[in-house]
Amino acid sequence: MGAAVTVDAHHHVWDLSVRDQDWITGSALAPLRRNFTLADLAPEARAAGVDRTVLVQTVTVAEETPEFLALAEEHPLVAGVVGWTDLTEPGVAETLARLRALPGGAHLRGIRHQVQGEPDPEWLLRADVRRGLAAVADAGLVYDLVVLPRQLPACARAAAANPGLTFVLDHLGKPPIASGALEPWASQVRALAALPNTVCKLSGMVTEADWTAWTPADLRPYADTVLDAFGPERIMFGSDWPVCTPAASYGEVLRTAEQLTQGLGADDRAQVFEGTARRVYRL
């Protein structure tokens, strides 16, 4: 491969015998209704030259984060974990401290909540959530944003109100790639990128496109927008495996990311495929 792809900053695993993934519904997602483990990922990552990953939460269940930390302790492939905890609970700081004291707790690098599922577009601005975000910052962790475009203005306001906390935008903020529309997403993502404590993952694009007919050209306007807005030093590659698999294989996602960044110099590509993730998540 042309780029030094060594860090995958966004993937998942799950075991349906341990816990249902209740978001896997309908025939389109049927291929995801099976177990996906690190043993499944490891050979694909190895073939792609990836030697470090960030394992990201899938469901808002407290038990999942300790399980992921234990996996990180056992498997050298996983260098960091973005877990979940209830940001709105009064004792969130103590919960974060307990998580970091668990086996593998040193691998906890960030927290994420399915903000995309919150009906309130300004959920991030609630007083109890702001208190939780402050606790995440105090713990030296980052906060991953999984949001829809309509929630991007609140993301920008939350980032502006918490300059000591790094906000990592997952999946470009889920732009409407299948429709080809750029606005208002592009303006909203540029407003977020104007804040220095924000970072963006070059991830999740194939599942926002037409799963059966997408081409790299369909993704390019969106990738170009975030590369220009954030700069390569604030962009990190993520596969979004296995969620990507109904639309593209692990290798296809990597090759497409290479194509979308081929206009960058070697140093900038190294930031996208390694440096940004290592720095932001302290891998």
Structural topology:
Elements (H helix, E strand, L loop, with lengths): L6 E5 L26 H11 L3 E5 L7 H11 L3 E6 L8 H10 L6 E6 L13 H12 L3 E4 L6 H10 L5 E3 L15 H9 L4 E5 L13 H15 L4 E3 L12 H11 L5 H15 L3
Parallel strand pairs: 1-2, 2-3, 3-4, 4-5, 5-6, 6-7, 7-8
Class derived from helix and strand content:
alpha/beta
Spatial order of the strands forming the largest sheet? 1-2-3-4-5-6-7-8
Which CATH architecture would you pick? Alpha-Beta Barrel
Using the coordinates shown, work out and report the CATH topology.
Answer: TIM Barrel
- Unreliable runs, pLDDT <50, ≥5 residues? none
Share of helix, binned? 25-40%
Domain count: the total is: 1
**CATH class bucket:** Alpha Beta
Give Rg in angstroms.
17 Å
Percent of residues in beta strands?
5-15%
> What is the overall shape?
globular
- Write out the CATH superfamily name: Metal-dependent hydrolases
- Total count of strands: 8
- What's the total helix number? 9
Q: Provide the succession of SSEs.
A: EHEHEHEHEHEHEHEHH
Distance between the termini: 22 Å
What this model shows, in words?
By secondary structure, this protein is of the alpha/beta class. It has a single domain (7-280), classed as TIM Barrel (Alpha-Beta Barrel), CATH 3.20.20. The chain has 9 helices and 8 strands. The protein has helices at 38-48, 64-74, 92-101, 127-138, 152-161, 185-193, 216-230, 250-260, 266-280, and strands at residues 7-11, 52-56, 78-83, 108-113, 142-145, 167-169, 198-202, 235-237. It has an 8-stranded parallel β-sheet. The longest helix has 15 residues, at 216-230. The protein starts with 6 loop residues before the first strand and ends with a helix.
